[in-house]
Design goal:
Elements lengths: L2 H21 L32 E7 L8 E7 L4 E8 L4 E3 L7 E5 L5 E4 L5 E5 L11 E8 L3 E10 L2
Amino acid sequence: MTRTGYAALAASAVLALACIVWLVRPVPEPERGSVPTWTAPSAAAQGGAPKSGAPTLYCEFTNFADRTPLVGFYFRVEPASYALVFRREQDGAQEDFGPESAPRWSLDRAADPAVLGAPDDETRINLYAYDPGRPGQVWFEAGLRSVRYRNLGGRCRHSGA
């Protein structure tokens, strides 16, 4: 083998080793109680976004093998319903809803766990240990049940007054 062949073989081995090291590196888990993985609602959603101090519920769901959220839901908590402000997908696509067009989800507190249901009844969020009367910055467990997203695990945070 020529000198060029050995150099190419060595470069390929180094590149392969670098790829393996990158693939098996540990990915840190987000700190509980931290800011949601995604940024605040877009400018289009700001009209429907709650004013400061208004109660909100943010939920994000992942598959079991990945810590990056596949889908996130941001709700404005109203006296009789939960108004969806926006839904964001992993690929960055986001559907924003204004105050008048926001789908109103309902909370069934009698169910165990409590269930937040979409108006079309095709999507449900199971809320484990959820107490709407005690908002805070603590994340709690949730599960998404949907034909579109399948069954995903995740977490939610109720914040505001």
